[in-house]
Amino acid sequence: MKQSVIFLEDVTLHFPKLKSLMSIFSDLVKREKSQFTALRSINLEVRSGEVFGLIGKNGSGKSTILRVISGIYPPDEGTCKVAGNISLLAGIGTGFSAHQTGIENALLYGSILGHNEKEMTAKLPEILEFSELGDFINEPIRTYSAGMKARLGLAVASAIRPDILLIDEVLGVGDPQFREKSKARILDLVAETGTVVIVSHSFGLMKDICDRVGVVHNGELVMVGSPEEAISTYYEITE
Amino acid sequence: MRLKKNIGLRLLKLSLSRQSMDGPLYDTNVVEVGLKPPLLTAPIYTVKEVVKNKFLIRNLVSREIRGKYRNALLGYTWTFIEPALLAVVYYFLFYMLAGNPDELYAMWVLIGIIIWGCFGKSLQAAVSSLTRNKNTIHLVYFPRIVFPMTSIMANIVTTMMSCVVIFPIMLIFNLPFTVYVLLIPASVFLAGFLATGVGILLAPLNCVYRDIEHLVRFIVRAGFFVSPVMWTYEMALERGIYGEAAVYNPMLTPITLARHGLEGHATTLPTEIILWTLFFGGLMWLLGSIAFERYERRSVKYL
């Protein structure tokens, strides 16, 4: 039996609503809390070596689940436990600084993703090669096109080798050739990494790579099953 | 205290649940996400996190400084040119125009402005550090203490660079170059340290209500006059009761130390005052780090 590496038990997450001075008083009178419930008692176990997909409409809470697992938002109720180190790939190129060179940004982004100096110096040649930036790597990245930035970001992000990889819609950047290359790279990464949780709207991809898929609707995990079952459930719910 | 008990309970549950499963199920330890250390260890925990993330902090500091002096022909030299030009202006204003008999007064004001500026800018940057970095916070997780620490360290570094201006000043005014010049970098660090505690105390609160940012901006402006920037510790002593009250301002110590360093003699500041400042800084660090670790997670949901 495969061991589980991600456990979510009754995870509920609220987002507080910002109150104005007036509404603070009215809330005191009415004795109610103004908040938005993003996740409602989510129960989920992901086993080691499994590729787990999450599908759902925009705003259903898929990304929020990944953020709870990665520690960005602690759950308000319930617990979230993980075994092993986690890396969340979301918004490739977070924290890029327009005025620094490609290399400096590669190091910066790498450290944001949790690498130490030794790891980054070891991985730098591989990153530079994959990014295909040539001499541009020594130019400030404000001179880069959007595709070049994305290439550099993906090159750094895909150099990580975590135990658990969380991917939030990072496919589909750059020109068609690079898109193919980046898809192949992510698939390699998925194959190499032990456990993957992936959020995506491309159902074709989900069918290809996922072992199990969960459907998220209005902050609830409606069902978990094979990709085909999940996708048909998704269409039933959203129709 | 309630939180502490809670963690103990959860850890207990965790170990129970692991025992109840048959066989060695996990090769790596199962860790609860978002588990916090007991509250009172927060000051040490925070220091550990800063040390652990030093590569990240170094990169972020250089990003911040680079961004500040981007596209400038003179680049980093501006950190030095700005106070040097200010020194010239003050010299004209206070000595030649206003006829202040003390030639050095303008330089006292200058060093006061440098040290106060380090404190004020560090504090403002630390308080707004979480709100400024909200995009990063939503997309990646790393210990959030990194954000205020980065802002403060970036300010300490730029202040250190502007302190180079004291060398020409010492030459021009024939001030003795002694070992006491080291009081100047020490006071830059002290000013940064004082800003750290207060900054991390207020940063989570600023996520919820940005009023804090506006309030801090006002405090920094008003504090400029309450602290010995335009006046000195020695002047305050001649003022009786007001002078005695001024001693309780923690920023009196770094500014006065830096001035004595510039004049090239040991400080005449009583040890009690220095100890009071260190105590105040330490207390703020204690309260700040506890508050930060306690509320940072909840407050980022407001971003």
Give a nutshell description of this structure:
Chain A has 239 residues and is α/β, with parallel strands linked by helices. In chain A, 39% of the residues lie in helices and 28% in strands. Chain A contains eight helices and nine strands.
CATH topology (fold) name of the largest domain in chain A: Rossmann fold
Supply the helix-strand structural class of chain B. Answer: mainly alpha
Helix content of chain B: over 70%
Per DSSP, the total helix count of chain A is: 8
Kindly provide the radius of gyration of chain B, computed on alpha-carbon positions and rounded to a whole number of angstroms.
23 Å
Largest sheet of chain B: none
Largest sheet of chain A: 6 strands, mixed
Regions with little confidence, pLDDT below 50 for 5+ residues of chain B: 1-26
Q: Name the average pLDDT of chain A.
A: 85
Which range best describes the helical content of chain A: under 10%, 10-25%, 25-40%, 40-55%, 55-70% or over 70%? Answer: 25-40%
- The CATH superfamily of the largest domain in chain A turns out to be P-loop containing nucleotide triphosphate hydrolases
Beta-strand fraction estimate of chain A: 25-35%
| Ends apart, CA distance between termini of chain A | 37 Å
Give a written overview of the molecule.
- The complex is a heterodimer of chains A (239) and B (303).
- In chain A, helix 3 packs across helix 4, helix 3 packs across helix 5 and helix 4 crosses helix 5.
- In chain A, 44% of the residues are buried.
- The mean pLDDT of chain A is 85.
- Chain A is α/β, with parallel strands linked by helices.
- Chain B folds into two domains: 35 residues; 264 residues, no CATH class.
- Chain B contains 15 helices and one strand, in the order H-E-H-H-H-H-H-H-H-H-H-H-H-H-H-H.
- The two termini of chain B are 27 Å apart.
- The chains are: A alpha/beta (239), B mainly alpha (303).
- Chains A and B meet through strand 1, helix 2, strand 4 and helix 3 of A and strand 1, helix 3 and helix 7 of B.
- Strand 4 of chain A pairs antiparallel with strand 1 of chain B.
